[in-house]
Design brief:
The protein has helices at residues 2-7, 11-29, 53-61, 75-85, 100-106; strands at residues 41-45, 50-51, 87-98, 112-121, 131-139, 142-150, 157-158. By secondary structure, it is α+β, with helices and mostly antiparallel strands. It has one domain (41-158). The chain is globular, with a radius of gyration of 23 Å.
């Protein structure tokens, strides 16, 4: 009878032993990267719909950190595309964004860039399941705009009315 008692561990003791391991596991899963905040201001073309702010965050987070070699077509050309297909010019005062490869290409030391603008159109490349996103970052020599590919192809506009 004594052997049987020693072999059994009360369930509350088992839980107490697992709790530190569970907390350690949860801590390892938490990202230390700064979150992408709602833009300070937006200029959108969504017809009778509103900008889906969570879509902006998701689209930005889906970029592959690989600057593409295209030259910036200019605000007027992108505004025309956004007017035709829908999209948004999203502006931040200072949004940290972890993009180590792009940072190197822009000439910034470290893994983080300061995002001040993202231009997201609803122009989707169905063959590659991607879309172009133009980012403007603060670099050591001033603002620099780069083209990246994003793999989240949801519409940046949703049903509903824009806030006035």
């Amino acid at each position: 009878m004594i052997g049987k008692r020693l072999g059994r561990i009360p369930s509350d003791v088992k839980l107490a032993r697992l709790l530190p391991l569970a907390l350690l596991t949860l801590t390892a899963c938490v990202s230390s990267a700064p979150r992408i905040y709602i833009p300070d201001r937006m200029k959108a073309s969504c017809e009778n719909r509103a900008v889906k702010q969570t879509a902006i965050e998701s689209i930005i987070a889906s970029t592959d950190d690989t600057p593409l070699p295209n030259a910036y077509p200019g605000d007027a050309a992108l505004q025309k595309t956004i007017t035709q297909l829908g999209g948004v010019f999203a502006y931040w005062k200072s949004q940290p964004l972890r993009m180590p490869d792009t940072a190197k290409k822009v000439g910034v030391d470290g893994d983080y860039l300061t995002l001040t603008r993202a231009v997201i159109t609803n122009q989707i490349d169905k063959a590659n399941h991607s879309r172009p996103v133009w980012f403007t970052f603060e670099g050591p020599k001033g603002s620099v705009t780069v083209l990246e590919r994003a793999y989240d192809i949801q519409d940046v506009c949703i049903e509903g009315q824009a806030d006035i």
